[in-house]
Each structure stands twice: as C-alpha cells, then as structure tokens.
Amino acid sequence: MDSINKNQPEDNYKDLRGKEGIKKIKELIDKASSCFFCTNTGKMPFATRPMSVQKTDDDGILYFLSANDSHKNQEISENSQVQLFFQGDPHSDFLTLSGQATITEDKAVIKELWNPMLKTWFTEGVDDPRISVIKVDVQDGYYWDTVHAMPVAFIKRLIGAVIGKTLDDSVEGTITT
C-alpha cells in the first residue's frame, strides 16, 4: 500500500532553513497567535498550558510574558527545553517548535511587550513585580501548511475527491532558524 505522500502528484515536502524558516515561523505564529506551551518535556505527561506569543523577532526568537512565581517558570528553571504547538486554522497552518527557554525580568523588554489586556494576569500593570519574560530560542520544528490559500486548497480537495486523486495542496517539512 502506498502512503498518501506517494499518491500526491505534486511536490508537497519542503524543508525551510534560515531566513526562509524564520519567515514561515512568523507567518504561522501570526495566524495562530497562541500556542500550547509545554515544559517538563523529558517526562510523560509533560506540562502544557496555552500561552500567547507577544513577539517573534528577526532571529526567530519568541517572547512570552509569564508570572515569575508560576509553575512554568519553575519548570523552565529545572529544564529549559520546551515544545510549542500552534494551529492557525482548522485545516492548515500547523507548527511545532522545540527550543531552549530562558527567563529574564528585563523591564525594557517587559515595557516593549506590554499590552493593557495583560492586566488580567498582572493586576499591578506593566510595573507588576511578578512579570517575567520567557524567551524561546527555537532549535527546530516541523510545519504543515497549504501552498495556496484555503479556498484553492478546498477546491483542489473537492476535485481530488471527484476524480479519485490526492490533490490536497499541502506542504510540510522541517523548519530551522
């Protein structure tokens, strides 16, 4: 039996590196905006919680704001390896990243990343003494996306179903910064 990839008449695998990888990371994170942020990745089950990315810089480093007394900060101080899972759309825009997390309380970075909605968690505002920054230096990842926009992908899948051919417009591959 052939795999679905062998049934795909179009090239649907492309590894992305460097600037091209960072561009795809930014694109998919912008679509998802939040992720499942996993710590204690050496144990099963690992700890998972939703987190919003505050910024992705030009080097592909991700920034999050977190309470310095949180479980996640404690877990990062014990093991800095993290895994992040993003989903931007029900049918595409999937991304998983692994990397090394570091924690800082740099007030200039906190001010740069601050959003008034964060006062829900940091009740004293931008100067709340509990705010810390988690920086994730991405080491590698994997993505699943569409080559074209979702309407084109849907039409291709519909045609594929009618003619009995795999036409799903997908592309996937490894991703590194």
Task: Characterise this structure.
This protein is an alpha+beta fold and 177 residues long. 27% of the residues lie in helices and 34% in strands. The protein has 5 helices and 8 strands, in the order ααββββαββαβαβ. Strands 1, 2, 3, 4, 5, 6, 7 and 8 form an 8-stranded antiparallel sheet that branches. Strand 5 and strand 6 form a beta hairpin. It starts with a helix and ends with a strand. The model has no long low-confidence stretch (mean pLDDT 87).
| Chain-averaged pLDDT | 87
Order of helices and strands: HHEEEEHEEHEHE
Helical fraction? 25-40%
Number of helices: 5
Largest sheet: 8 strands, antiparallel
Rg, rounded, reads 19 Å
Portion in strands: 25-35%
Shape: elongated
Distance between the first and last residues' Cα: 36 Å
- Per DSSP E runs of 2 or more residues, the count of β-strands stands at 8
- What structural class do you assign from the helix and strand content? alpha+beta
Q: Low-confidence runs (pLDDT<50, min 5 residues)? A: none
